[in-house]
Amino acid sequence: MRLSTLALAALLALPLAAAAQTAPSYDAELAKSLGADERGMRQYVLVILKTGPNKMPAGEARTKMFEGHFANMGKLAGEKKLVLAGPLDGKEGRRGIFVFNTPDIEAAKTWVATDPVIINGEMVAEYHKFYGSAALMMVNEVHGKIEKK
Question: What is the DSSP code string of 93-130?
């Protein structure tokens, strides 16, 4: 019985040993291109989109507003300003997030101000400094390769 326990333990340890041997090595050029510090991190602005004071009723105007919202996100992502975006669960009025490629909250505010959901008061924005992996800068490139459209 003891031998089978040791054999099982050895088998379970194999993936860990393989992962340790294939761990990627530091890529200084990539780190620099992503704006990474020595920890592989960088500064961003995190925006939490919350329910605003002006809920637009269902209909053509609301549909156009959200089409504009998605188009605006695409434009900002194409300009490499918007790093990451997505919806939230709506708890406590939190409806979505943006992560912007800037440490400057004032710059992020000017970019958010171009969004139709903000312009129409459907949502309001809350701004936070965010320190995260510089690899986030690659999300849009990778997403483009996995999105069927």
Answer: GEEEEEEES-S-HHHHHHHHTT-HHHHTTSEEEEEEEE
Q: Which pairs with CB-CB distance under 8 Å and at least 24 residues apart come from 78-86?
A: 80/137, 80/140, 81/111, 82/111, 82/140, 83/44, 83/136, 83/137, 83/139, 83/140, 84/136, 84/139
Taken in order 116, 82, 147, 88, is the CA torsion positive or negative? Answer: negative
Buried-exposed string 36-57: b where 16+ CB fall within 10 A, e elsewhere: beeeebbebbbbbbbebeeebe
Residue 20 has pLDDT above 70, yes or no: no
d(CA 7, CA 2): 9
Strands 94-100 and 82-87: antiparallel
Whether the model clears a pTM of 0.85, i.e. scores above it, the answer is no
Neighbours of 88 (CB within 10 A): 14
Distance, in Å, from the CA atom of 4 to the CA atom of 7, rounded to the nearest integer, reads 5
